Amino acid sequence: MTSRWALVTGAGKRLGTGIARALAHRGFDIIAHVNESLRGAEVLRAELEGLGRRVEVIRADIATAEGQDDLVRRAKALTNSLAVIVHNAGIFERKPFHEIDREAYARMQAVHTEAPFFITQGLLAELRADPSPCIVHVTDIAAERPIAAYAHYAVSKAGLVMLTRALAVELAPHIRVNGVAPGTVLFPDDFDAETRARFLARIPLRREGRAADVAAAVVFLVADAPYVTGHIIAVDGGRSCSL
């Protein structure tokens, strides 16, 4: 059986590692993109190669046009057929609205909206060469239900939601495009016990989400939902059901 490649951005830690691992267990070879988390990607590579999967690690700063183009160029050098792209790389930065400068705003948009746009555009021929390609965007429930002090983040994720829907229309019928919208998944390290308890109290399932919860939704969209496109699945323990 010919192997199929899946590109996962931000694969060196947290959700990206979980998504790459889950796709590998479903038989995909992995192109693991990282920026600063090279060590995590190398650990992941050793683990997945132990399962018999091929893993290639590409380091690039996709907050820049040069980094986006470099990732595309190096992915093209690895394969002429790409089954999956998971745009997971992200920045989560707390900054009150009045403190957000143009540099912080631009970087947030570049990573969450521009990189998925131009990386997908650059790899379109490789996606079209696969018999049933799929793109998954990791968005956020904050794209529709923002919280204070994350305005630039919420705006960028809202752009990614619209990109999901726009590409689902334009790239059909051959390429499916969907998204997963995590809620409270893997608390940031700087959340203290009081903050964590406050968030958990608003989640009907009363627990923090795991990377495996998001990865399972990604795998469903990639491998088990051939008639689903343009859809965003909330993986949030029910948090977005109530204010």
List the helices and strands and how they pair.
Layout: E1 4-8, H1 14-25, E2 28-34, H2 38-49, E3 55-59, H3 65-78, E4 84-87, H4 102-122, H5 124-128, E5 134-138, H6 151-170, E6 176-182, H7 193-200, H8 211-223, E7 232-235
Parallel strand pairs: 1-2, 1-4, 2-3, 4-5, 5-6, 6-7
Helix pairs in contact: 1-2, 1-8, 3-4, 4-6
Q: What's a concise summary of this model?
A:
By secondary structure, the chain is of the alpha/beta class.
Please name the fourth-level CATH homologous superfamily: NAD(P)-binding Rossmann-like Domain
Mean pLDDT: 96
Question: CATH top level?
Answer: Alpha Beta
Number of domains: 1
Please, how many helices?
A: 8
* Helical coverage, percent range: 40-55%
Structural class: alpha/beta
Using the alpha-carbon principal axes, give the shape. globular
Sheet with the most strands: spatial strand order: 3-2-1-4-5-6-7
Radius of gyration: 17 Å
Distance between the termini: 48 Å
Report the oligomer. single chain
Q: Which descriptors apply to this entry?
A:
single chain, 243 residues, alpha/beta, Rossmann fold, seven-stranded parallel β-sheet, 43% helix
